[in-house]
Each structure stands twice: as structure tokens, then as C-alpha cells.
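Input.
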Amino acid sequence: MKTFFKSIRSAVAATMLTAAFGGAQAQSAGYLLVHFTGESAHGEQTYMSVSTDGMYWTDLNNSQPVLRSTVGEKGVRDQTIVRSPDGSKYWILATDLRIASGKGWDAAQHSASTKLVIWESTDLVHWSEPRLVDVAGAIPNAGCAWAPEAIWDPASNAYIVYWATISPLNGVDKPRIYYAKTTDFRTFTAPQMYIDRPGTQGIIDTQILEIPGSVGGYKYVRASGDGQITVEGSQSVLGAWTTIGDLSQIGLTGSMVEGPILFQFNNESKWGMWVDQYASGKGYLPLTSTNMGSAQNWQKVPSGSFNLGSSHKRHGGVLNLSAAELSRLNAQWGGSTPINRIQSSNFPDRYVRHAGFTSVRIDANVSPLDDSKFRVVKGLANNSGYVSFASVNFPGYYLRHKNFVFELAPYDGSPQFATDATFKQVPGLADAEAFSFQAYSHPTHYIRHYAYTLRLDAISNQTGRSDATFDVTN
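Output.
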């Protein structure tokens, strides 16, 4: 059942990507993948990767989470990303689940959250705080809401949000695909049955893709995990669907692969499907097709002809990008940032370190050493001339001030957090060859140590200037 529900996440998540904005061909510069990495301490958060060709991918933010969930179960899986038809907004939807906290798969399937976690943005770089929306709570005896997807439906003048839920119906307790409508990803209609399979056969991981020009004879194509990776076509999102086939003709069955991710290659009548080789633990295998109306057309991409990046990709969603969108993402989170230590200038045997998250100080002989390792990254609130300090051993956590005292905390996506975690790196107040860090939110205040504890202070004397001066070392 564990792999069965991994499938629920993957196929459903891929569906909403391209269809949500009504045609991938207008987006011609690259691709964004949002995903999680697994059940590790920090794996069930939102990661991002980009590509210019859909085959070779680069992790953003040094392979660390870009967004963290601070709501619900404080973990997210099965991310998908949606662009509004006019291109003015984006949403990330995810399963509210944290297996790493000790929750077993049986509990996850039958008594986990019926809510989704949602972020909202106008530029792909600045995201709202995460919010919870209960989409499946009205389903009788609902066990969970898995692998959300969404697609804009012109016929409904709304987004169709769909997901998998396990619940008993007609004497059979199994996963089925349900849907609800929304125009703003805040208010949703009551859940309704969307896809069911005969008998005891469940269905998970459904993803719908809009096919510009109805190439292959269908306006929409979907892939689902239902014992196979079944491909179907339709002329409308909520209309009747016709079975096109499955992937068994290329030697891939539902016992071997799951979690399909669908997308269209930019400026081509060519499509990609990623399938997770869960049975062998090899990760995603890319497939390509030039005719979405035939399952016989799917082909495996040869080994060596693709690279999915450094992190292990798990159930995510792909969004086709314009040049401006790709540029913004790379400016904010691209490139490789070295690992550094922040050394006190006037106590050179001491380094900035976090201890128990609520204490940030300068210590000698730091143990564990990784508590004193940071990446000095582009500022969360301003990426031009400003920096933030990202923890190395707690990915997604940053140094921030709160009431002028420092802590190490997970980035919650809020403007307040970003402001409190952003600093201007300037020549050292006591030594111009070193550095001082001026608060973005309080330009008259600087990071300094006082009695070895880090705090934010206005600097008015030589002692303060010395305490506020640091070296950035390897």
C-alpha cells in the first residue's frame, strides 16, 4: 500500500501543470519542477529545480527547500504548481503530510489530513504564508487528501482541483479521485466523485494535461495509476473520457512504475511523461511522445540523455516558463553558494553558531561543527546587495531577528520573516577588510554579539563597532 499511495501523489500532481494556463507553447524559455525529496528530516518540504530543455535539470537554492510548511502536519508532499490563465498569479498545492514525524502509512492512508497546503505568488519568487484548505472533510469517513492537482476549466469558468481520497463507498474502501471547483484557491465547492474504477480497483496519481490544437484527437489527456499507468483522452475536463491505452507496450506496468508527471515541450508537438521507478528505487524515468492520441507512441529516453539534478525527485509538478520567469527564479535561487563560517573579528577563536534554534551566539570549539556552517545567500526580502544566512545542517532554516534577538527558524514564506532574515553586507565597522551586516528592516541596526550572544543593535561606540565586525571564512 505504501507504493500504492506514492502513486496517488505522483500522477495527480502532474495533471494541473500545463492545462492550468491554457497552452505551454507560449512559454518558451524553460521549465520549473516543484517537488519533495523523501521522508528525511527535511525532505517533505517544497524544493524547486529548473531546466531549459526539459531533460537536464538544475536544483535551485543549493538543493535545499525553497518553501517550508508551518501549518497542519508541518510537512508537504506531492506538490503541483498552477498559473492563472492571465499569468498574474501562481499557486502551489501540496498534500498536508509528514511521514518523517513517525506517522505510519496505514495512518496516513486512513486518518491523515483532509486538507491541502496552498501558497500563492505573483512572481514565482515571493510567496505567501502557507494556508490550509479542507477539501475532503465533507467526504464520509474520508481518510486523507492526497496528491492535489488543478486545471483551469473554461466550461466551468473555474479551476477544477482534484485529488485522491480513501473512503468506503458501496461497501468498498479504496482510493478514488474527487474534485471541487474554486476561482481563488480559498473557497471551494463541496467535493464530488470524479473518477472511480470498477470493483475493488483503486485509482491514484491522476494528472490532466491540456493538448493545444487537440493533437492526437483529444483536447485533454490524463494519466492515472490504477494497476497500470492508464492514459485517457477527452474533449472536456468534466466530460466523458476514452481509454487510449497504457505503458505495458513499452514494458512498464503498474507494479514497476507510478506517479506520472506530464508536460509539453516548449515550441514542439512533443510531450514528456516522467514515471517513478519505485519498484527498483531508480527514481524517475523520462518518456517522450509525439502523438498524445496513442499510448503506442511513448518511448523511453536512453540513459545518459537526461539528468534530473542532484536531489532525489519525488512526486512533483512541471510548469513551462517564459524567459522572464526563468530569469527571476535563477536570480533568486540559482547558482551554487559555498559553505562558510562567520568568525568574530574581535574574538577570532569564536564563530557564529545556532544552538537549540532559539539561541544564536559566538562559540569557540563549536560542537557539532555544522551548527556554525551557513550559506550566505541572496537576501530573502531583497536579492540585490542583501544577504540571508541559510543553515547547512537544517535546510530551509535561516538566521532571523525577532524582537532584536536572533534565532534559527524555518522560512515560512511570509514577508515579515523575509524582512527579518535579510541584511546588507557592508565593510566592517571596525575593520574595512572584514564585514558588518546591517538589518534590512532596521537600517540603523547591525548584527553584533553582546556577552557572546547575537542580537540586533544600534552601534554608537568602538566596542559596538568591534562586536559588529565579522570575517566570512571557509
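The domain at 2-333 is CATH 2.115.10.20 (Tachylectin-2; Chain A).
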